[in-house]
Amino acid sequence: MKPAALANTLDEMIRETKKGHLNWQLELQSTDGLDDSVKHRITEDEKEWIVDECFISFYCVFRGKKYLMITYEHIKRYKDQVRSDNLIFMPPLNVRFFDVGILSPYIIDANAVLLDRFHQLWMLLMDSYKKNENRVSIKFFDPYE
Length: 145
Prior knowledge:
This protein is of the alpha+beta class. Helix content is 27%, strand content 40%. The chain is built from three helices and seven strands. The chain has helices spanning 3-18, 100-103, 112-130, and strands spanning 24-30, 41-44, 47-62, 65-78, 81-89, 107-108, 136-141. Strand 4 and strand 5 (81-89) form a beta hairpin. Helix 1 runs parallel beside helix 3 (112-130). The two termini are 32 Å apart.
């Protein structure tokens, strides 16, 4: 799917979610919140960067079609410097792995508009989850298991 088409689909999904017409299943795997001592580190530019990774799987049935979309954020920190890369994947329904290598054939070119739509969707779903509206289920995975 082209980024513009996916952004338009996400706009529609956001509207339908606000109306209470969509149910979502989220799966999340993140190193955020873990102690820095257990996080992966890489050396670049003669600096040792601490790496955080976050995968979020979004699944719903929209207009009779099943959608699986996975976002990935790779965040590097060195003192007060932060660098971040974002990827978006639309794999087949049976490919639900949190592994960039496995997901790479299903990558969608992420642009600022598309990343913004995913952020809007995430915020909306978190708000719904906090309100216990029973339209969002979340499953958490340990990144080191």
